[in-house]
Design goal:
about 350 residues; 11 helices; single chain; seven-stranded mixed beta sheet; three-stranded antiparallel beta sheet; alpha+beta; 10 strands
């Protein structure tokens, strides 16, 4: 049985627990701390499929030698505002957070910076890294793809070629930042797997079976089915176009991808940061984004909608509540981590 649904955990308690797990599994201290921090950050924001729900899989990846435990990425190129790393299958949370930090440092000098990372391990929730940049007043974009995965078919096809290919954008405003985290597919592999475990189906036809027919059944993914692109059967060319851009933006710029027939869990990631001061000016930027944010929030809602929200607004509200009252984990997460905790000699909270 899973933990009682009303149990709330202090965020620091969960971070310490996760850091202890990853440290005991062999990750270097700063890498264990980064993975723990950004998984818990995802849970704080309500991205429950990409928070501690991933910890068991990550721990197994370490045990199996799929995730590298120590060391630095190889620097393939460094021209100041343009950098390329070979990630050596190091923890994605550490690589991505370090890339955003470095891009911010370089943007302070050059106005903008782009860092492409090839051969990272899974990076989790993209939105979790955005505030590294927006807290400094910088705009940031992060994109990710997995060269060894193929759960989404090109529009008009029925065989999976690429992954959900998420992109995230952090946009400073005079108030809270706008935090956008979207994928080129309607749903994700992690959500489909969760529904399979829980014996549930999607409420809408967000998948295609192996014959290319719309489906609500998440089990079709294991039978050669695919995730529907954004826009579905009606306007799926939109999600298709998004996905192709992410493939080139990540694997293309990183110089390593599907054509190399990579095996195991891997990710290609590209981070781009902009300092508005180097363009039209910080105050001018905030004047524009502030107007846009207010125009959206004050827009008259359609029937059945309480009010118009901005992307990331709910996540930041959930984070504030969880910081004050504790995190309510998705059922069974702590139970799933118990065997790892016992194996590694770490006490569960």
């Amino acid at each position: 049985m899973g933990e009682a649904p009303d149990i709330r955990y202090a965020p620091d308690t969960l971070r310490m627990f996760a850091q202890s797990l990853f440290g005991a599994a062999g990750l270097e201290e700063e890498k264990a701390a980064a993975v723990a921090h950004y998984l818990v950050e995802a849970d704080l924001m309500g991205h429950t499929t990409h928070g501690l729900a991933l910890a068991g899989w990550y721990l197994q990846s370490i045990a199996d030698g799929v995730m590298n435990r120590e060391g630095l990425p190889d620097i393939l190129s460094d021209r100041g505002p343009a950098v390329a790393w070979r990630g050596r299958r190091l923890p994605g949370a550490w690589l991505t957070s370090e890339a955003v930090k470095l891009a911010c440092e370089r943007a302070a000098t050059y106005g903008t910076a782009t860092i492409a990372i090839a051969d990272s391990h899974h990076i989790g929730c993209l939105a979790a890294y955005l505030t590294i940049a927006t807290d400094r007043g910088y705009m940031v974009s992060i994109a990710s793809s997995s060269p060894s995965g193929g759960q989404v078919a090109p529009f008009g096809g029925r065989k999976g070629v690429y992954t959900p290919n998420p992109v995230a954008h952090g946009i400073p405003t005079p108030g809270d930042p706008i935090l956008i985290d979207i994928s080129a597919s309607i749903t994700t592999v992690n959500m489909a797997q969760r529904l399979v475990r829980e014996g549930r189906q999607y409420e809408h036809e967000w998948l295609m079976d192996e014959n290319g027919e719309p489906s609500c059944d998440p089990r079709v993914i294991d039978r050669g089915g695919t995730l529907m692109p954004v826009g579905g059967l009606d306007h799926g060319q939109k999600g298709y176009g998004m996905a192709l851009h992410v493939e080139a933006f990540t694997q293309g710029l990183g110089g390593l991808g599907r054509v190399d027939e990579l095996k195991g869990t891997n990710a290609a990631v590209t981070v781009q940061v902009f300092d508005p001061e180097a363009f039209g000016g910080r105050e001018a930027f905030l004047r524009q984004t502030g107007w846009l944010a207010e125009a959206c929030r004050s827009n008259p809602p359609r029937p059945g909608v309480a009010r118009v929200r901005l992307p990331g607004e709910n996540g930041l509200a959930r984070k504030r509540e969880a910081l004050a009252e504790g995190i309510m984990l998705h059922p069974n997460i702590m139970t799933s981590l118990a065997p790892h905790a016992e194996r590694l000699g770490v006490a569960t909270p």
